[in-house]
Write a structure and sequence with these properties.
Blueprint (H helix, E strand, L loop, with lengths): L48 H4 L6 H5 L12 H7 L3 E4 L2 E5 L15 E5 L2 E4 L5 H11 L4 H5 L1 E5 L5 H5 L11 E5 L26 H10 L7 H9 L26 E2 L3 E2 L29 E7 L9 E2 L10 E4 L19 E3 L8 E2 L3 E2 L4
Bound molecules: 2-acetamido-2-deoxy-beta-D-glucopyranose and calcium ion (2 copies).
The site of 2-acetamido-2-deoxy-beta-D-glucopyranose has 2 residues, from loops.
Length: 366
């Protein structure tokens, strides 16, 4: 077995010498209370060693592309209907990152001028129903299904499943590796997606996300595209809608209210994921850019960024982790202040968890 849970590196928290550029050891800073730089709502990672055997970027995707499967053209209309609506994001310059980082160790800064060309982006996170249609057409099997397990937030598990689990992530005991957890069984083997078809698909690895987008003749966004889209045309704001978390007392994203990880008051209406598009869209018409599910991007992770102006940056050429953006329903300022457009985190590409999903983009109209 190439993969075992290397629990001590699951979050890069317990050891500072892992070489993982994680924020977990960061000093608390002014912008966020102690603990905000911790691992609260970040997803745990599979053993770092697994990343070394990463396939080429287009490997898994090609295998499941329509062309490779013989192209069931008659089904394309149906598939198209199933896919997310997209909007055109007109290219331009924007300020990426921030000079006032909430979590400096994440490489949120420096703020830098970036140009991105026009692209189309899904207005929503990919849903269970959409992923189901992909799987029905292609027979795709996710990495979590192959591995036989995935990480589930303890608060979602039934007592009977919880009682069977002996392992835990030392630095983040609320993440449990659960046998039989995957996109069909997001809260463990005794859960299902029947009542959650319009919720974001979870427990998808980076390769799974690439495979879906490729099948849809789309691709994952670069971090720059994602962040440009997140900002919704606003300049230097924290959130897709501005600088206030709850303008006029209203919730604009599915986050965590209460005390993480023990009590989620669900003040925003949702303890777990919400149906996509349950909260207001940003200025570009995009929903859930922050909160609900974390979203994979195509970039490899680094915390070092050039301040020189960049044109369609795609991140480092290689790495061990992929960048994810936007935070999730598990994010709270006290522990994971990452529901900001400039915020970022990382996971090994084969990681999957109950708070990590994705959306696709395309350079051409689909
Ligand atoms: C799905 O889960 C619900 C409870 O959340 C349960 O009532 C239902 O029977 C399950 N459906 C299947 C097909 O297992
Ligand atoms: Ca919530
Ligand atoms: Ca999201």
């Amino acid at each position: 077995m190439r993969r075992t849970f290397a629990l001590f590196v699951l979050l890069g928290c317990a050891i500072g010498s892992s070489g993982l550029q994680d924020s977990c050891g960061a000093q608390p800073e002014a912008a966020a209370p102690p603990g905000a730089a911790g691992c609260g709502c970040g997803s745990p990672r599979r053993a770092a060693a697994a990343a070394v055997e990463e396939e080429e970027e287009d490997g898994p995707a090609d295998k499941y592309s329509r062309g490779a499967n013989g192209g069931p053209h008659e089904a394309q209309g149906e598939e198209r209907k199933m896919q997310s609506e997209m909007v055109l994001i007109s290219g331009g310059e924007f300020l990426m990152g921030t000079d006032d980082p909430g979590i400096p160790a994440d490489g949120e800064g420096p703020q830098r001028l970036v140009h991105v060309d026009s692209f189309y982006i899904d207005i929503q996170e990919v849903t269970n129903q959409q992923f189901q249609s992909f799987v029905d057409t292609t027979g795709y099997i996710t990495e979590a299904e192959k591995f036989g397990d995935s990480f589930v937030f303890e608060g979602l598990l039934s007592d009977s499943v919880k009682n069977q689990i002996t392992q835990a992530v030392a630095a983040a005991p609320w993440w449990l590796p659960v046998q039989g957890a995957n996109w069909r069984h997001p809260d463990g083997p005794d859960s299902n997606i029947t009542d959650r078809l319009d919720h974001p698909v979870l427990h998808v690895s980076w390769a799974d996300a690439v495979a879906y987008c490729s099948w849809a003749k789309k691709r994952l966004p670069t971090e720059a595209e994602w962040e440009y889209a997140c900002r919704g045309g606003l300049k230097d704001r924290l959130y897709p809608w501005g600088n206030k978390l709850n303008p006029k007392g209203k919730h604009y994203a599915n986050l965590w209210q209460g005390d993480f990880p023990n009590h989620n008051s669900g003040e925003d209406g949702y303890i777990k994921t919400s149906p996509v598009m349950s909260f207001p869209a940003n200025g570009f018409g995009l929903y859930d850019m922050v909160g609900n599910a974390w979203e994979w991007t195509s970039d490899w992770w680094t915390v070092h960024h050039t301040t020189q102006q960049q044109h369609n940056p795609t991140g480092p050429l290689s790495g061990t982790d992929k960048v994810k953006k936007g935070g999730s329903y598990m994010c709270h300022k006290s522990y994971c202040y990452r529901y900001r457009c400039a915020a970022r985190s990382q996971n090994t590409p084969d990681s999957s968890a109950s708070n990590l999903g994705f959306r696709c983009v395309s350079s051409e109209q689909r």
